[in-house]
Amino acid sequence: MSMLNQMKTEEFDAEWMNLIISARKLGLTLEDIRAFLRSPYQPMKNPHLTTANNTCTSS
């Protein structure tokens, strides 16, 4: 594995760890997290939708 790929993987892993820790602090169980990740109702990524034109996040 190249140094760049290893750095990206470690950064990616750190992000996932932070998400899991945050979810646990909110009281979610590991099974809650697994169920959420397996859910078929996950929002689809839309490359045309950005935070700049998202009415939910714009001020």
Verbal overview:
The chain has 59 residues and is an all-alpha fold. Helix content is 54%, strand content 0%. The protein has 2 helices and no strands. It has helices at 3-25, 30-38. The longest helix has 23 residues, at 3-25. The mean pLDDT is 77.
What tags apply to this protein structure?
extended; 59 residues
SSE layout:
Elements: H1 3-25, H2 30-38
Protein name: Sin domain-containing protein
InterPro entries: SinR/SinI_dimer_dom, SinR/SinI_dimer_dom_sf
GO molecular function, one term: protein dimerization activity
Report the total helices: 2
Topology pattern, helix = H, strand = E: HH
Mean pLDDT: 77
**Approximately what portion of the residues adopt beta-strand conformation?**
under 5%
Largest sheet: none
Main structural class = mainly alpha
How far is the first residue's CA from the last residue's CA? Answer: 43 Å
Tell me how many strands there are. Answer: 0
Give Rg in angstroms.
16 Å
The portion of residues assigned to helices is: 40-55%
What characteristic shape results from the CA principal axes?
Answer: extended
Unreliable stretches: none
